[in-house]
Amino acid sequence: MVAWIGRAGMTAAALLMAGCTGSYEPKPLTEKQAATLDKALAGKVAGEKVSCINREPQTNLTVISNNVLLYRVSRKLVYKNELIGSCSGLSRGDIMIVRSFGSQLCRGDFTTTADRMTGMMSGACALGDFIPYRAPAK
C-alpha cells in the first residue's frame, strides 16, 4: 500500500532525514530479489534516468527490496527507482508513505514506512532517480 501526502507532513520527514548522517551503503540484493528484478525487466532496455515521473495514471508499485522499487506504467514501460537511504520494512510488507508535490513523483520526495499492525514508523528514505525500462520497438 502506498499513501501520498502533500506539504503538511513534510516538516517531520525533513527533520527525520536531516538527522541522518554518514554515508549509506545499500545492501546487495538477495538471489531471490535479483531474480524478481531480472524477471520484471526481462526483454526491456534501460533508458536515460529522469528526475520525475507522472503519478497519474496510477502506477503499479513492486517492492524488490528495502531500497529498490519498480513502478509499472504499462506492459511496455517500467521505472526502476533506487531509494536514497533504506526504507526498512518495505520487503516485509510495511506501508509506504510518499510525500510528494503535485501530480509527479520526483527524486528527493520523502518516503517513510509504517508497520501495518502497529502504525509505528519503520523506516525513512527519499526517492532516487527513475530509470525507464522499455520494451524495444518491433
Describe this structure in words.
With 138 residues, this protein is of the alpha+beta class. The chain is globular. The strands form 3 sheets. Strands 2-11-6-5-4 form a 5-stranded antiparallel beta sheet, covered by helices on one side. It has 2 helices and 11 strands, in the order βααββββββββββ. The longest helix is centred in the N-terminal third of the chain and has 11 residues. The chain has one domain. A hairpin with a 2-residue loop joins β5 and β6. Helices cover 14% and strands 36% of the residues.
Principal-axes geometry comes out as globular
CA-to-CA gap between the ends?
Answer: 35 Å
Structural class: alpha+beta
Helix residue percentage = 10-25%
Order of helices and strands: EHHEEEEEEEEEE
Instruction: Supply the number of helical segments.
Output: 2
Number of strands: 11
